[in-house]
Write a structure and sequence with these properties.
MoaB/Mog_dom (chains A, B); Molybdenum Cofactor Biosythetic Enzyme, Chain A; Competence/damage-inducible protein cinA (chains A, B); MoaB/Mog-like_dom_sf (chains A, B); CinA (chains A, B); Alpha-Beta Plaits; homodimer; 3-stranded antiparallel sheet; 6-stranded mixed sheet; 9 helices
Amino acid sequence: MTELWRSSILIIGNEVLIGRVVDTNSAKVARTLTMLGYEIIEIRKVRDNITEIAENAKDLLHISNVLITTGGLGPTYDDVTAEALSLALVLPLGLNERAKEMVEEKIKKMGLDMTKERLKMAIMPLTAKPIPNPVGVAPGIYIKVGQKRVFALPGVPAEVEAMLDYVVEELEDLSLFRKGEACEVLEGVREADIAPLIEEMAKTYPDIYIKTHPGMKDGTPYVKVCALATADDEETAKRKASKVVKAIKGRLGA
Amino acid sequence: MTELWRSSILIIGNEVLIGRVVDTNSAKVARTLTMLGYEIIEIRKVRDNITEIAENAKDLLHISNVLITTGGLGPTYDDVTAEALSLALVLPLGLNERAKEMVEEKIKKMGLDMTKERLKMAIMPLTAKPIPNPVGVAPGIYIKVGQKRVFALPGVPAEVEAMLDYVVEELEDLSLFRKGEACEVLEGVREADIAPLIEEMAKTYPDIYIKTHPGMKDGTPYVKVCALATADDEETAKRKASKVVKAIKGRLGA
């Protein structure tokens, strides 16, 4: 059953691999899917290379049922995600009429002309559905193959954020669970000292993910303890998580 | 020859996969290696799971010669990187005496006692060298197997930053090249409109990576054009990159 919730993220773009850009998209996507009850098995970042994108998309679809990609949907020569996905899924590429309308509508509003480069943004694997882009021009790509779902989003963070709503709408009813999180900062505590307690609590609550984040403030050590719980709804999950964090705090007399 | 410069990054930690934390380590490591002349083939992020870390480390060492990992070296139950690397590289684990001294020295200075959890940070694959940690307690792990080099660093960004100096020292003499970058913002320009020119320039300078980043400021579109060039030294590489960006600017009459 949990198989269905297995998901992964593929971030596409040389600018990420050369470290020019700090990728915030994967955290945003990961957070959204996690809270919706999905489990991110792996995140990968690859260059703008058709073969590398296709091979990695295939790998990730092998270990997960939902794949979200970002990047490589624009008008430039190195935007090759649509082609790579058609290669990975063995689906021929073609001009999507609905996507073409979306691009036309956008560029008309901007007072611009259609060019070969802009038209390219409407070419996607056949059987794909274009995802409306409320912020930029390039439509996203939604492909369903059996139980597997692939959502390709552009790389611009504002566009990813806006288009994630579409992904959530498609996925929220499929998920039977929701996640809820609780965190608390324990002052004057060192991570190594509470490690045995955390391990004990992790064993007591095997379905709750407990994690400590150590830090130092004004020369005093602290540990931020977070718990992530699963339940039928977000509120119950939050309550479960909060209970565990409070139990840890109580045990420390903090 | 270029084979030697192939490198990859493995980010370890559930907190990244659930999107609680925006990973800045991979960009920092990627930037440092890139400018040193190394090429990042892939970045992966995996959960705190021994098998998943080991399998992905093996995959990445298959496609690259330098692997940098971050995370999973601390004192808690879910810090399993040392164990995973020993599994991936088929090297038995053992207490490293030099690492033990490093941990002891740190905790003595902090007025703390040695515990099982703290001692765990000195256990690493045999034949590994511990990397001094000037900021935190956990030493890093440096393993050389044939031409392959693995550097395992902790996950705390300040520790990664400080310990990258060690990585650079080990790698800088191996690299025969350096990278140099130049960027320029072209105002009033749209990405799709300059796409044909960028493609032409990329073909004219096949060894220079040219990338456009579109944006909008006060209602006016702009494109940031960046070029990344390779040369014997950084200055020459920067000059080459700058020449290409200036040529693009000139062609646009901007």
